[in-house]
């Protein structure tokens, strides 16, 4: 494609920058409510069909500058602890840069926290899942079907503690032969290490509904400190009148950290099971002793 100047070379900071004839340049700055730039704010532009065209993060001055095809776009901008900005942008033919100016993000409102007291995981609406690489090509998805846990909510979240116990033998990847192998001494060794356990160390508020939960995870007889990136989803009343609170959390584990080093190598030294394990948790808790008919 031919290329053309988008600005007179004698004028402006973008002088001399050229783009494809079928594209245009879009610029914007992301700031907070007092005018300070938001660094590494995340932005995404989707086309009129909902397809993601470009995504990225703002620079150290809060700026985002992208070159995209001519068209109409839906734009979302977000930053940790702030409510997302949703808007539209139009990139027209003719080469003139489109300057959206300052996009202001406001601090996200904080949801009420659970009442102090003893809470327990409601297993029917909780999922403990994981994803691992398979022979360097695809992914294996799995989870654990049997677990229990309790959260003691203190007068402040700094005085809150969580303990979760997972039955290692309840691992399920939807392939019986693979699950049996994962239970064996090559991997989880459930005969000698029947449970995985997590004890929280602290809860740290990162703004809005975002929290960090750190603690010790014992797996395969080895304890390591892990960090959960958590999003608190608030407190609601369930179908039976019970009180529920929910969080979504993610983390990443490395199996070598837990002395799980078995690898079956294929041609060109490709490991059957990847080293990094992504963990995804959807957790709902109810006050301890809550009686539920539908579980």
From TrEMBL:
Residues of the Lipid/polyisoprenoid-binding YceI-like domain: 118-286
Listed InterPro entries: Lipid/polyisoprenoid-bd_YceI, TTHA0802/YceI-like_sf
Protein name (record): YceI family protein
SMART domains found in the cross-reference section: YceI (SM00867)
Signal sequence, renumbered to the chain: none
UniProt source species: Streptomyces antnestii
Family from the record: Belongs to the UPF0312 family.
